[in-house]
Design a protein that fits this description.
- It contains 27 helices and 9 strands.
- By secondary structure, it is of the alpha+beta class.
- A 5-stranded mixed sheet has the order 3-4-5-9-6. Strands 1-2 form a two-stranded antiparallel ribbon. The protein has a two-stranded antiparallel ribbon with strand order 7-8.
- The radius of gyration is 26 Å and the shape is globular.
- It binds zinc ion (ZN).
- The site of zinc ion has 4 residues, from α17.
């Protein structure tokens, strides 16, 4: 069968030949590409010549090219333009892919070659990027037990198996508890305060279930509006307590023992691999490097944010007191925050939208990218795309050289998952003197234009597109030799720096003047409006900071110390929360038993990185504020030391080279307006 996925992509810049690809092509292509990649790997492992960096490490990094291209096309489509058939294929090929990567990780012959190079690296005279690649390849084996004796290898596999069962069970319990709850309201007056849209959704849900009135659940789209708007305090309390006691009740879905088992097994696994704790194991491949650094970072930020948080809490409490609330409780937080915010700012999101016509915003982003990074975007129609709504651009450098292909897919449709993300169809690398440029894509779900109205973005959507474009720049400006170190292939707590950094331009008059013009009158956005956006974005920021820090500290406490003596989940958690607590304790609630981020998904010892990334982006933007937000020299330094460098060196080294110093929380404290409150 002729399979376009297995031919050399005969397109300009070898872009993906979407129009020729049919669903039936994927499985045979995956099969064949895995076979090819396996042959390549075996050739490296069985090479009779002594291992060299080139014949082993470099060869490994450039192996499996066809498989990578097919995977990126397929999985990107599975997110942006999927259907039942594609989802079925994903289920079928995912085990093939994990088997393939397991086979590599467990290939002893291959590891022997990698290890001999790693042990002998002093004599190899490697460049920094090569050293990083060697280290990365070596760790990909050892972090999975390659250095263990056979007995310990068996132990490790057993722990891994047990851990994956426990995580699965943890998630199932949370889901079961979430699904088991529903609140049925038949008296409409109890829903006073709730916006029409949320009410309508609750009514539809009731109808779906063949019930009367309105039904609310513990799913976010139902739960959040209820907690934010419903006036009835008793109902809010009921819903909040049900939410907070998921998997913490006396029934078969209780996760307490599972939490203890997970943290103990993770600790055992880390010890077996030679790490002090699970957090030490995870953070080895993070910018933060150690739990000690995370703790000192968190405590520093806590000390700086706490006075402001306490003041805000007092302000919120006295605001609620006017309503007769003597003691502000957790279930009052969202409700009175929303009310107070409205009273203080009265920011009408709808009034902002006419200033943010999608086309204007995109033009603005391109102008900013041009001013800062000399990139030029030209829309082209000769590039194959997976949907007619996708826009394609050829990106060039200031001297007219080809830089990259940029795909932009803005509107929701059936078959696209929610949210917004950046991805790529081809990474960048340098081989045989050729710098092969990347194909980068952003996918969003913005309000569609109608026959009479263009697509007008909310301010939140504006920051979202800047965010994703920041990731895209990280991809476009990549300039590394090895594909696995290129672009956004950086440590997880460093990857949000370019994206969050770019969001800062949305709040600057100098930047907004370039594009935020009323779509009918062409008038620039009034400065009072911009100031209002800024002020309201900092609203109750101290309390928010404490909340985020509390989750990060809980995560680090579970994973950054020996957990063997922990007996009681709730007591442990209460103790950890003591320093960040603002609201009265709720005895029947527990956070850990439904903390899916760290016990179900792969983000354990990683929750701190939300705030970490904010500290980084505020600190980096401060440099632009000091030198001018369109200062070429500062932007060049960013490109040279960060954006073009991918994961070729440790993030802190790259960052310091750009900034001239280590990041600290001062800029964030200032930007968030927490300083004045102290
Ligand atoms: Zn992001």
């Amino acid at each position: 069968m002729h399979n376009p996925l297995l031919q050399k992509f005969n397109t300009q810049y070898t872009t993906a030949p979407f129009s020729k690809i049919k669903n039936k092509h994927f499985k045979p292509a995956f099969k064949k590409a895995i076979e090819q990649a396996t042959v390549e790997i075996d050739k490296i492992a069985e090479n009779k010549d002594d291992p060299t960096f080139e014949n082993t490490i470099e060869a490994l990094d450039f192996s499996g090219y066809t498989l990578d291209r097919i995977s990126s096309i397929f999985f990107n489509l599975n997110s942006a333009e999927t259907n039942d058939e594609i989802q079925k294929i994903a289920q079928d090929v995912s085990p093939w892919l994990s088997e393939f990567s397991n086979d590599i990780r467990l290939n002893q012959q291959l590891f022997k070659r990698v290890k001999s190079l790693y042990d002998d690296q002093k004599s190899l005279d490697l460049a920094i990027e090569q050293k990083t690649l060697l280290d990365k390849k070596y760790k990909s084996f050892t972090r999975n037990g390659a250095n263990l004796n056979d007995n310990d290898k068996v132990k490790l596999r057993e722990i891994d198996k047990e851990l994956s069962t426990l995580s699965l069970k943890f998630g199932e319990n949370v889901l079961a508890e979430t699904n088991a709850f529903e609140l049925q309201i038949t008296n409409e007056s109890q829903l006073k305060g709730l916006p029409e849209g949320a009410k309508e959704a609750a009514h539809l849900l009731a109808m779906e279930k063949g019930k009367k009135g309105w039904i609310f659940t513990l799913d976010y789209p139902s739960y959040i509006p209820f907690m934010t708007y419903v006036e009835d305090r008793v109902l809010r309390e009921k819903l909040a307590k049900s939410f907070g006691s998921r998997a913490f009740q006396n029934n078969k879905n209780n996760n307490q023992q599972i939490v203890l088992n997970i943290v103990k097994l993770r600790h055992k696994r880390a010890n077996l691999l030679g790490y002090k704790t699970h957090a030490h194991f995870v953070l080895e491949e993070r910018m933060a490097e150690t739990p000690e650094n995370v703790l000192s970072f968190s405590n520093d930020l806590l000390a700086k944010a706490k006075p402001a948080a306490k003041k805000e809490f007092k302000q919120l409490s006295s605001f609620a007191l006017k309503d007769g609330i003597e003691k502000l409780q957790k279930w009052d937080g969202a409700y009175y925050s929303e009310k107070l915010k409205k009273e203080l700012f009265d920011l009408d999101q709808e009034a902002l939208k006419p200033y943010f016509k999608l086309e204007n915003v995109i033009d603005g982003i391109f102008i900013i990218a041009n001013k800062l990074f000399d990139l030029q975007f030209t829309e082209v129609d000769n590039i194959d795309k997976y949907h007619k709504e996708v826009k394609t651009y050829e990106v060039t450098n200031s001297n007219g050289d080809f830089n990259s292909i940029f795909y932009a897919d803005f509107f929701p449709r059936k078959g696209k998952r929610n949210g917004a993300w950046m991805t790529s169809y081809k990474s960048q690398w340098i081989k045989n003197g050729e710098n092969s440029r990347p194909h980068v894509s952003i996918v969003c779900n913005f309000t569609k234009p109608t026959e009479t109205k263009p697509s007008l973005l909310t301010f939140n959507e504006v920051t979202t597109v800047f965010h994703e474009f920041g990731h895209a720049l990280h991809g476009m400006l990549a300039n590394t030799t090895y594909p696995s170190l290129s672009g956004t292939s950086v440590y997880w707590d460093f990857v949000e720096l370019p994206s969050q950094l770019l969001e800062n331009w949305c709040y600057e008059k100098e930047a907004l003047d370039l594009f935020a013009k009323h779509f009918e009158s062409n008038e620039s956005i009034p400065m009072e409006m911009v100031q209002k956006i800024k002020d309201s974005s900092n609203f109750l920021e101290g309390m928010q900071t404490l909340r985020q820090l509390s989750f990060g500290l809980l995560d680090m406490s579970w994973h950054g110390q020996n957990p063997l003596s922990i007996k009681n989940v709730k007591d442990f958690e209460t103790n950890v929360f003591e320093e960040t607590r603002l609201y009265p304790k709720v005895a029947e609630n527990c956070m850990s038993t439904s903390f899916s981020h760290i016990f179900q998904g792969g983000y354990s010892s990683g929750y701190y990185s939300y705030k970490w990334a904010e500290v980084l982006d505020a600190d980096a933007f401060e440099y632009f504020k000091e030198t001018g937000i369109f200062n070429k020299e500062t932007a060049n330094k960013l490109t040279k030391n960060v954006l073009s460098q991918g994961g070729t060196e440790k993030p802190m080294v790259l960052y310091k080279r750009f900034r001239g110093k280590e990041p600290n929380a001062d800029a964030l404290i200032k930007r968030a307006g927490l300083k004045n409150k102290n």
